Amino acid sequence: MLRFIGNILWLVLSGFWMAIGYVIAGVIMCILIITIPFGIASFRIAGYALWPFGRTVVVRPDAGAGSTIGNILWFILAGIWLAIGHVISGVIFCITIIGIPFGVASFKLAKLSLFPLGKDIVSLDEARRLGETGMVAVTPIGGR
Length: 144
What we know:
By secondary structure, the chain is mainly alpha-helical. The protein has one domain. It is built from five helices and two strands, in the order H-H-E-H-H-E-H. Helix 1 crosses helix 3. The chain is globular, with a radius of gyration of 15 Å. The C terminus is likely disordered.
């Protein structure tokens, strides 16, 4: 229940706006055709930015040099700008004690937004089943 409440608060305070940024980046990437894989990654992260609590990001074991090269291009084209948005949101959240968990989540999403390729977004239960701790664990407020 606390996870649900945390996600609702996140959606209203930051998630909706950050998801719009990811969708805009995804649409631009899809229009350019050659960057469609970046657009798909951006749409996946948009969903995660809307509803992050209870999910985490794990590194795909099959990610290789293509993901690394793609991440460098993504960083230049969109990643830095999306990360700046997350950092600004995180700083604003951390002004109040109640907002600190949301600020921490925003900082973790900033890290993901810099280099998203070669990573999967999974539930915390799925990550535990896989034996992963996750790169960007957005833990539920007051939960496991």
